[in-house]
Each structure stands twice: as structure tokens, then as C-alpha cells.
Amino acid sequence: MSETPALTDFKVIIFDCYGTLADWETGIYTGLQPLLARFPSSATWTRKEALLAFTEIEKNLQVKDPGMLYRDLLAKAHEVLADGLRANDAPTSTPESTTEHAAFGDSIKDWPIFPDTCAALRVLEKCFKLVILSNVDYASFAHTHAKLAGETDVTAYTRPAANPSVHWLPQMTPHSRSPFSLVLTAQDTGVYKPDPRGMLAALGVIQAEFGVGKEEVLVVAQSLYHDVDPSSALGVRSVWIDRQGATMGVETAAEAPKYLKRFETLGEMAEAVEAEAKAKA
């Protein structure tokens, strides 16, 4: 591959999902509203302040307990945030119920898909094998997977109970409309990104399943922190989907770029790939 490869020189794309394909910031911020409104200090928080406060808690929990399922980790982060707000504003008030924390953890199924995502995936699947590597659990991702496939039957994307440890491949759902050739979650890898073991595990599976080495793998993600920076450290090329207004995962945005290309939407990237493919034809 050339020193500065074209997008169409790659064979496999590894996508981050939440933040890149699905609007996790809106999902998280919306889900936090009942809690934030309960305390004087957080009731006046901006969206950015709320998301930054939450993501610091989430990061710490992911490092502390990488084996915790993501929906449970979200519930725990909600609890930790609530405890901190209560200690500051109303230490004698009644704590939230475990049901409320769990409901926040289960809100992943309600997180919206970015409007450009599904059409862009249909373009990109013509040129690449598409892979998901996400900090999520099987059951939660099934809901998002169905949305990304343009379907409503979530059960079709749920891991088989007989062997839940096997990563998702299209043959598990032969009649699905999924654009993906492989789905890997933190439940598969046993770690949360940016831990490099997650990416290394994905590269190993891609090599085994598709015979494609890392030099032909492209990471496409919104989060510099979770995806672009750690993949760069492993020598894997990346594209930054710079979702405008995003707060989480962009801590290193002012540093020297570590990505091959930057687009503001996945739709823009899909257009660039189409243009390259036509020029090569």
C-alpha cells in the first residue's frame, strides 16, 4: 500500500458504533435529565458540562472493572453521579432506586442513529467488509444492530443462547439485512477501548475470518480517545468522523492529527469512497 493510501485501498473498516453511527451523546444526555433536574447544582449544567461529568465517571469504571457489562456499567455510572450530586446538594435526601439506575443502563436501545448513517453503510458495504468494535454488550447492541440494518426484529440479532461467546457473523442471521460482516463487543474482547487489547483482538479475528492484515484495515470513528489515537499507536490507519458539536472523546483534537482523513459525517466519507471507486473504474 502507498505511503498515503486512498480510502479504497483498504479492504476492511472497523467502526466504532456509539458516537460514530449512533448519537450516544444525545442518548446519554436525554437519559440523564430526570437525575440532573433533581439537584440544584446539576439542574443548570449545560449539555457539555453534563456529558463531561458523566464520561469521567464512565472512563474510571471501565478501567476499574473491564469485565462489567456495558449496560451494568452505565447503571453504575448513573448511581455514582447521583451519589456525588446528593453529597454536594442534599446529603439527607433519599437515594434513587436501583430500578432508576437500571433503566438508564437499558436506555441504549433508545439511542438514536445519526440520519446519514444507514445510507452511508449501504454505500460502504459495496467496497469493504464492515466490522463493529464497540464498548457495549451483546443484548444492548442487538437493538442498535437491528436499527442499523433497517429492521425491527431485535431477536434476529441476539446472540444464540447455546453459544453466546461466539462473535456475531452474518451466517448467524442468514436472512438479515445487516451491513456488517463481523460484530465484536467489549463482551467479546474482555476490555473496554482504548485498551489496545480490544483492537488487537479485533485484528486477530479479522485475519482469521477474512485473511486481511492490519495494513488493509481502516478504523472509522468519532472518538479520538477511544479509537483513533489507540489504533494509530498500533500502526492502524484511521478516519476521523468529526461529528460537529461532539463533546466526548475529542480531548486530543488540538494535537497533531493521527488520522488519514477527516469528515464531518459518515455520509461525506461514503461520497468520497464512491468518487474514488468511480475514478478507478
Describe the structure.
- The chain is an alpha/beta fold and 281 residues long.
- The protein has two domains: 186 residues, Rossmann fold; 86 residues, DNA polymerase, domain 1 (Orthogonal Bundle).
- It has a six-stranded parallel beta sheet, with helices on both faces.
- α7 links the parallel β2 and β3.
- The longest helix is centred in the first third of the chain and has 20 residues.
- The radius of gyration is 19 Å and the shape is globular.
- The model has no long low-confidence stretch (mean pLDDT 93).
- Keywords: Hydrolase.
Short description:
It comes from Mycena rosella. With 281 residues, the chain is α/β, with parallel strands linked by helices.
Properties at a glance:
globular, DNA polymerase, domain 1, about 280 residues, Rossmann fold, alpha/beta, 11 helices
Secondary-structure blueprint:
Layout: E1 12-15, H1 24-36, H2 40-43, H3 47-64, H4 70-89, H5 98-105, H6 117-124, E2 129-134, H7 138-149, E3 182-185, H8 186-189, H9 196-210, E4 217-221, H10 224-233, E5 237-241, E6 261-263, H11 266-280
Parallel strand pairs: 1-2, 1-4, 2-3, 4-5, 5-6
Helix pairs in contact: 3-4, 4-5, 6-11
Q: Can you give the mean pLDDT? A: 93
**Low-confidence residue ranges:** none
Outline: globular
For the record, the CATH architecture of the largest domain stands as 3-Layer(aba) Sandwich
The major beta sheet can be summarized as: 6 strands, parallel
Helix-strand sequence:
EHHHHHHEHEHHEHEEH
Radius of gyration: 19 Å
The overall strand count is: 6
Protein name: HAD-like protein
Pfam family, one: Hydrolase
GO molecular function, one term: hydrolase activity
Keywords: Hydrolase
